[in-house]
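Summary for the funding panel

The consortium committed to producing paired sequence-structure records for every protein in the target list. Below we show the first two records in order, beginning with the earlier of the two.
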Amino acid sequence: VFTVLSVNLLGDVVRDSVGRGIAVRPLPASRASVPGNTGKEGDTLARATGNDILRIKDLGVAVRGREGGEVPVITGLSLSIARGETLGLVGESGCGKTLTGLSILDLIGVGGRSTHGSIRLGGKELRGLGQKDMAKVRGNEVAMVFQDPTTSLNPAYAVGNQIAEVLRTKMGMSKRQAWARTVELIDRVGIPRPAERANAFPHELSGGMAQRIAIARALSCNPKLLIADEPTTALDVTVQQEILDLFRDLQDEYGMAILFVTHDLAVAADICDRIAVMYAGEIVELAPVDELFAQPHHPYTAGLLSATTHASNREPPLPTIKGAVPAPRLWPEGCRFAERCEFRKSICEKRVTLTGSDRLVRCVRAEELDLRVAS
């Protein structure tokens, strides 16, 4: 059995608002208030409905530290994704985006584990499942597409064999049935001459074509949830747009939910229905994509939007967010973004929960600041 099958056994499209800079104006005192921080944070799940495919509540993840003991790397993470919805998970490297996706599949790796919380897929609790039961979930109900198809595809086997093996192992198909379905899947993801390409090895395919193969493999068992981890990062802009279009078409056809992990806000704007912004192991803002881009409520989100390049403004210097994401051992007790935030005050030294209804934000000054995108 291929090592890579452990997962499947497991643009230039930019919103007009992106990258024009952020105008920050304090609001009138009548609007100023501090988000409440009472109650359990995990009790608030934006748009949680009976149609949810995935519901994560108060998830915590820790890894073994170099000096012994465990270090929390994800804390209090809650989100939901409905059938047919795409939720974007965005943020800088080191925020915990990929680890969130791996946690769903219990693929955190040696030295890491989910410490508390709930991960529900439909009516099934995934946390605490044994390895045998979890193996049935991977591929059948949840599949994952990784950033670099050249490393997720086994170089020693033809790509068609890698898809067919999943179908035989997970779906119980005969060798002939699996191969016929493999050719159908390769054709469905837009690869010409599918029967011929099925016999190709990964190194014989372009990056875009290899990623299409990875997508075909992930969809081979018709999963309820697809986790796409930076699936367009290694591709040029034209191919990137083609892959995004393919995701949309396949979602319409299969009705699956998608957790789309990316650091690229332009990509998130193109494909996502809602966006969850992560920073230092926690969600700091979650909102419908149009609302998030029109008026971010968290200074970190505003900084990301301001730092996004825009085709109409190529004049240097480009806006940046000073500093870097702090290492987990260095997380402050209060707001984890405070050291990089130009709006911090002494009140930011206190912890604040993720608050709101359709929009969630983790900032004690969220109602006081107006972080609008400048026109």
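The next record, for a separate protein in the list, is shown here:
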Amino acid sequence: MPVLKQIVDGSSGAFLVGFKVPPVLFFDEAMIPSRSRHNITRQFTKDNPHKWGTKLFMTCCADTAYCLRYVAFHKSLT
């Protein structure tokens, strides 16, 4: 899990470079499709088109929908 955290933190911080944070933000969730049994962050969601995958929580710009930061959800961290 520490390797995944380093990758997420490094790539998520790169989104903020060169972009001014707007006053209005929105929070969204997304799913990265994955059926691999070796994916430790894989989750099942019954109602989504992609039933298996990694769930992300994202902070986005309300005007442009540009992703400013994201966090991968892992059920053992809750």
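Regarding this second record: The chain has a mean pLDDT of 76. The first helix runs from residue 2 to 14.
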